[in-house]
Amino acid sequence: MDEKPEIYLDNGATTKVDVRVVEAMIPYFLKYYGNASSLHHKGAEARNALNDARQVIADRINADNDEIVFTSGGSESDNLAIRGTSHALKDKGNHIITTTIEHPAVLETYKQLGKEGFEVTVLNVDNDGMLDLDKLRSAIKDNTVLVSIMHANNEVGVVQDLEKIGEICAEKNIVFHSDCVQSLCKVPINVKQMNLSLAAFASHKLHGPKGVGALFVKRGTKLYRQIYGGSHELGLRAGTENIPGIVGFATAVSLWTDDDVERITSLRDKLMTGLLEINDTELNGSRESRLCNNVNISFNFIEGEGILLHLDKNGICASTGSACSSQSLDPSHVLLAINIPHSKAHGAIRFTLSRETKEEEVDYVLKVMPNIVNELRGLSPIKNNEDLAEAEKMKFDDHH
Amino acid sequence: MYIDEYSDKVKDHFFHPKHNGKLEDADGMGKVGNPKCGDVMELFIKVEDNKISEIKFQTFGCATAIASTDALCELAKGMTLEDAEKISKQDIVDYLGGMPAIKVHCSILGEEALREAIKDYRSKGKT
Fold first, then answer.
1. Considering its fold, how many domains does chain B have in total?
2. Fewest C-beta atoms under 10 Å: which of A191, A223, A231, B84?
3. Cα distance from B39 to chain A (closest Cα, Å)?
4. Domain hosting residue B96, numbered range
5. What is the ipTM score, two decimals?
6. What is the pLDDT of residues A160-197, one digit of tens each?
């Protein structure tokens, strides 16, 4: 690689759209541009495409095609699921449960429902990021109506055991929702085996276009619509369907194979093992129950923003849990929830691989990373754990 | 912070700091911050004729903190202690060609460390 390479390892944020997806979408801009609600043949073309796409998503998760509602993406799906059921089941009970490591699309929605009078329980997870099932069991009360627990975590890649969680919810006859935005096509999802009532998906995390998502709604689930208007999408989501986007989403889903997941997993392991060979590094999140494309490592004694700038200078895109990289100046709530100390959360870097990640790209990261770490550690007054312990005794300034 | 929000000068001081390191025979040393908030800074000075003749720093912190401290050292070198004490965070921000408001606090620690180092020097009775 003579020129500065472009190595995109931030696929947890979003992915490059597969060229085959783009090709599948183009006719739905230029030729089959009808409105799926129209009576004429242009409408029928759009309607057919919509139904085919619905079937593709349904088949992938062992659902029926009348159980898929297309939305604008993961956040809308989570909002529809959580707000929609909570309000629909208000007469039955007002207690809703989730975890500390959810995506803001879930956590902020729960927070808002708290303000609207719902009783909210946010369960802690262990240091690996896994939910203790007994904790869930004992949190459930007579008035609990909804449990929302994400499948794969976007920051540390921890994959929860949805089948066991679903069993508990089914026993108690409670609606179970899961944010599956990161896991679709990467971890098998079977809504029947997992006893899911609701599950949120997004297209752009799996080489599909942005602005499209879906919500699985098990037949018979009581749900209030969040967007009022026409009777599109089973009457649950008004608005003219984004046919090109939906076709792109379904195409992207249909392209994923088990071989892809296997190949990404082995590249992930190479990257993870190689990076952990650098001194004073720690993997964040479970090693065993982990998304196939997620590596999240703390590089101790240095800070993530600086690492990201050096990576970017080398053409590598990644992300960090550091406070200084965020607009809020708070370190990642997920890293703090799994008890990573502040000083180590600041040095956490997330690399997320995709179907397009190549082995030589992983090799390149492994080549440049030790130099970056050495350079930044050279600037740091903290060289080892003793220095760190010493520095942590210093007065806690309020300059933040 | 987004990469396109860094001025060229901030990037230059971050990637190529001129004053990084330790002075083993420093006349004054200041250490401030806490790793919990993501910043720890050590600043070393040598003083000749009431002027800062040498100045070095080490920072555990974000890119802006590193760049700001390096810039501070650049400004302070050769100054009298009285003038160096007066360097404000705004002086540093101006010297670096500005930075988003949310990052200005990252340059505060450098000033604090410098004042501590001067205090340390004076407390040794060498004035």
1. 1
2. A231
3. 9
4. 3-123
5. 0.90
6. 999 999 999 999 999 999 999 999 999 999 999 999 99
